[in-house]
Write a structure and sequence with these properties.
Number of helices: 6
Distance between the termini: 92 Å
Pfam families: Sdh_cyt
Oligomer: single chain
InterPro entries: SQR/QFR_C/D (IPR034804), SuccDH_FuR_B_TM-su (IPR000701)
Order of helices and strands: HHHHHH
Number of strands: 0
Radius of gyration: 23 Å
Main location: membrane
Organism: Yinghuangia soli
Keywords: Heme, Iron, Membrane, Metal-binding, Transmembrane, Transmembrane helix
Number of domains: 1
Bound molecules: protoporphyrin IX containing FE
Structural class: mainly alpha
CATH class: Mainly Alpha
CATH topology: 3 helical TM bundles of succinate and fumarate reductases
Largest sheet: none
């Protein structure tokens, strides 16, 4: 009996946490979007380690490093579908990973609904521009243009 009386209280003993600012929208209870977004951050993170570190080693270290990078170097690499795919996947994963991370930060820190809304409009618009122009350049790059 004495043991039970002296036991630490479980309820209310933990650190005080602030209530989340982002409201639980009715939509988020119907879909598993946040679960998939959480999973996507982990999986894209793992892939990005390989893609980004590989990219840095190739561009900056091996075979003369950054000094050999120029128009001819890019033209040579984007003549090869393997490097086009590498750069395309890296572009899309980094952009979507970064956008989703910033979406979380906006949800956590923007206090007013209007602020949150406009920050997200800005974020998604910038992402569309980056993804569109980046993808366009990778697919339409032509080293002989204007010759
Ligand atoms: C290189 C490999 C990378 C790995 C392994 C990685 C991993 C992760 C993981 C696991 C999270 C989730 C953290 C959480 O939910 O608490 C995260 C969040 C985030 N990542 Fe990455 N990431 C990488 C690259 C990038 C890149 C290239 C960008 C920018 C384009 C980026 C921007 C972000 C942002 C903005 C967040 C949200 C941070 C937050 O919630 O406080 N990450 N990252």
């Amino acid at each position: 009996m004495a043991l039970i009386e002296n036991a630490p209280k479980i309820t209310g003993g933990g650190p005080a946490l602030e209530a989340p600012r982002s409201k639980r929208s009715p939509r988020s209870t119907k879909t598993n979007f946040e679960l998939y977004a959480w999973l996507f951050m982990r999986l894209s993170g793992i892939l990005l380690v390989v893609l980004v570190i590989g990219h840095l080693i190739i561009q900056l270290i091996i075979d003369g490093g950054v000094t050999r990078i120029g128009f001819a170097f890019v033209a040579g690499r984007w003549a090869n579908p393997f490097w086009m795919t590498w750069d395309l996947v890296m572009l899309w994963l980094a952009e979507l990973h970064g956008v989703n991370g910033l979406r979380t930060i906006i949800n956590d820190y923007a206090e007013r609904d209007q602020t949150r809304f406009w920050l997200k409009v800005l974020l998604y618009t910038s992402a569309l521009i980056v993804l569109f122009t980046g993808t366009l350049v990778i697919f339409t790059f032509d080293p002989n243009i204007g010759q």
